[in-house]
Protein: S9 family peptidase
Amino acid sequence: MKKATISVIAILIILISIIVYNNEFDMIVRDETVNIGKESIAVEYAQPKKKREKPGLILFIHGDGPTNKNGDEGYYPAWETLAKENYISISWDKAGVGGSTGNWLEQDMVDRKQEAEKILKWALEKFDLDLRKVGVWGASQGGWAITKLLNENKDVKFAIGVAPAVNWMRQGKFNTISDMEYEGYSKKKIDEKLLIETQVNDYLKENDYQGYLDSNLEKDVLEKDRWDFIRKNMDLDNTSELEQISKPYYLVIGDHDLNVDTKETEKIYRDHINKEYLTVYPISNATHRMLKPRHQKDSRMTVVETIFNPRKIFAPDYFKALKEIASKKEI
Structure:
């Protein structure tokens, strides 16, 4: 019995040591609150441990949803990759999330671009940077914000788009179809769902929220603030902005993306961005979030693997792409 107890304790110590070791990241993480006028923005940044030449800087622009400053620490493996290449990574709690004031559901992509510019201005004043290596990273919905930043802000020298869509409405339809197909729904059920979405979109176009409520089209009814958020952004299509790009854009897309039609994104980006400025990184065995396909939907396995080694849930080629981008001598 005593030997068994000792063995169990030894195993627990080994497991805890593995978890602690694999959750230590080779970077220095700091938190700050940036006060701009009446706004407070809770910021987190990761710096390289080794002091070398002046570092570069990448702002991380979230996708949809009430995301916190480090994406529930999901950004850490990417930040570590960039820190090793002498980059500082910065992100922040969305408005109304964590320590940030406001309400992200009241923002359109111009608002999000302007919010990022406030953080960029603060960062440029705070850090002694290699100004040739200041960029933005945007995931999914954040892709609409980073094209604006790249085109309109002279301090932004490059952009990394991870699974960005082009057109809001087409992206929503694609997501519905691919997600339901993945879950095994019949074509009939998918068509029924698409018909409902078309009717909901008609109410949205007319901004008839009461009519939408009275229609009883959906069991999970859109809250009014989410309704207003969709109204603000549903006409998004950045095709014309792609044509204006005259700085490096790195498009990172996975081959198991259920949220965004990456084939459409790649085609439109190639058709509209001058090939001199566009580099495409197709990531094999990667979902919308750059995770391995077995983590397409969060599960207990995802939680367990994340605890034991958060780097291993990601498609390896994603970090290889980030490393290659960051290691370029001339961005």
